[in-house]
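Protein modeling request. Please complete all fields; requests missing the sequence field cannot be processed.
Requester role: graduate student
Desired output: 3D structure, token encoding
Chains: 1
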Amino acid sequence: MKLIRNGEFVEDNFTTVGDEDALPEGPAIVSLERWQAERETLRARNAPIGVKLQSGQEPSPIAEDLDHIDVVALEFPVYRNGRAYSYARLLRERYGYKGEVRAVGNVLRDQFQFMIRCGFDALEVADNITPEIWAENVGSFSLFYQPAADGKETVLSLRQRLATRAREKATA
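Delivered output (172 residues):
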């Protein structure tokens, strides 16, 4: 798998480890269950730590620990399961999480832009994804109807702004 972080193809320094696997010396991503079982030990590590949430696991159980978590990996198990979009937005907007929110699993190219809009800043993508495919898919829309975590102006707010400007010009 390749990792795209903030629009750039980068090397992934994190190792995802199973619940029974030994932790590596460097950055690691563990399951929510392991985080809950070994919380104090993992918080005391001298290496970056991440927590992977399965599609049915909300971020609320780690909300109090987000200052100690470098990566929250949200799983997309199948294309029709979009709970991770909501979880990414919760992490950014409700919990104010500033660390990396990573999409993992079934990350499809036609979803790239929507993932970024919801608060993801890193995506694990298939090996056949190239920078050209990334650019083509992430730039496919320039206007949006719904507000999102990226703060981009919506079509409605654009229309309101343009209407206000037109009224101001008409009365000037």
